[in-house]
Design goal:
Layout lengths: L14 H22 L3 E10 L4 E12 L3 E3 L1 H11 L2 H17 L11 E5 L2 H5 L3 H12 L6 E6 L7 H14 L2 E7 L6 H6 L4 E4 L1 H5 L5 H17 L2 E4 L5 H9 L4 E2 L8 E2 H7 L9
Parallel strand pairs: 2-4, 4-5, 5-6, 6-7, 7-8, 8-9
Antiparallel strand pairs: 1-2, 1-9, 1-10, 2-3
Helix pairs in contact: 1-2, 3-5
This protein binds ligand C2E and magnesium ion (3 copies).
Protein name: Diguanylate cyclase (GGDEF)-like protein/PAS domain S-box-containing protein
């Protein structure tokens, strides 16, 4: 019978598939442990205005696995979303980011800066999310007006009324929103107008070849124009050189983030960079 199934059938013992499944299960178990043992930490990448002045940072999760070394967020974030571990991961990220943010308000050099935190769809849709944000801000003493949540277009796939309602509740509380990786998803323009957004973030895939690929240039310019029409700040991510920055500036882009300005850095380094007291690293 096995023979009749044909040679191209993926059998139960396909070694490659089996290895992939085992590896994924192992990684999931390790991620669970990492979350229990506080192995995840945040790095921070600066964001800048049209005059290249510092306006804030984006917090990015990092995981240093004891054996595997650094695991890419491109691997562990989707895994966390799939398994539901994103709820605990998101809770830890928010707590770490807000703890650091709380130290900024007493210093004139930092009290205007924002902390952007990535929020996954599953996390945002969780019924306790609004309360979690409010509690974390209250617990840490961070100011809502300095917290910016980065959402992605995939959030807009369904339950749009509920999403808008939640965003409005958080906005009323003082929190602001950026739409991350903009242009890669399926935003409906009619929804976009209704969302209480403050910022659109041009995805780095359009920024990368903006000087050489006319399609990317058109997309970047269209997003900038769209932002201007809707009264939204537009930030470009993945800006690596001054030619890209100049092109985007010439077309009205007013904010930037990328290796041109700096790589993501650990909290201790950011605290030094901002010249905050040493005790300030949350
Ligand atoms: P993202 O939010 O779009 O973050 C931007 C990614 O681009 C980061 O990758 C950043 O390190 C990288 N990047 C920044 N500047 C440059 C540049 O000039 N050139 C290039 N080539 N890359 C640049 P990273 O840290 O690997 O994060 C990847 C993604 O993982 C993030 O994309 C975000 O979607 C997700 N992620 C990271 N941390 C979190 C988190 O705490 N929660 C959630 N839900 N997702 C997270
Ligand atoms: Mg982001
Ligand atoms: Mg992005
Ligand atoms: Mg991205």
């Amino acid at each position: 019978q096995a023979k009749a199934a044909g040679r191209n059938t993926v059998g139960f013992f396909d070694p490659q598939l089996q290895a992939a499944v085992t590896d994924k299960a192992a990684l999931e178990a390790d991620l669970r442990l990492a979350l229990e043992q506080d192995e995840l930490f945040l790095v921070y990448q600066t964001q800048h205005d049209a005059q290249t002045a510092l306006t804030g940072v984006e917090a990015l999760a990092r995981w240093k696995h004891p054996q595997r070394g650094m695991v890419s967020p491109a691997a562990f974030i989707p895994l966390a979303e799939e398994t539901g571990l994103i709820l605990e991961l998101g809770r830890q990220v928010l707590l770490q980011a807000c703890s650091l943010l709380a130290t900024w308000q007493d210093h004139s050099a930092t009290q205007h800066l924002t902390m952007a935190v990535n929020v996954s769809v599953r996390q945002f849709k969780h019924p306790g999310f609004v309360q979690q944000i409010q509690e974390t801000l209250a617990l840490t003493g961070a100011k809502p007006s300095q917290l910016k949540l980065e959402l992605t277009e995939s959030l807009l796939a369904d339950d749009i009324e509920l999403i808008i309602h939640k965003m409005e509740a958080l906005q009323a509380f003082g929190v602001s929103f950026s739409l991350d990786d903009f242009g890669t998803g399926y935003s409906s323009l009619s929804y976009l107008k209704r969302l209480p957004l403050d910022q659109l973030k041009i995805d780095q895939s359009f920024v990368r070849d903006v000087l050489t690929d006319p399609n990317d240039a058109v997309i970047a310019r269209t997003i900038i124009g769209l932002g201007q029409s809707l009264g939204l700040n537009v930030i470009a991510e993945g800006v690596e050189n001054d030619e890209q920055r100049a092109f985007l500036a010439q077309h009205g882009c007013a904010a930037y983030q990328g290796y041109l300005f700096g790589r993501p850095i650990p909290a201790e380094q950011l605290v030094q960079f901002l010249s905050l007291p040493a005790a300030a690293n949350g």
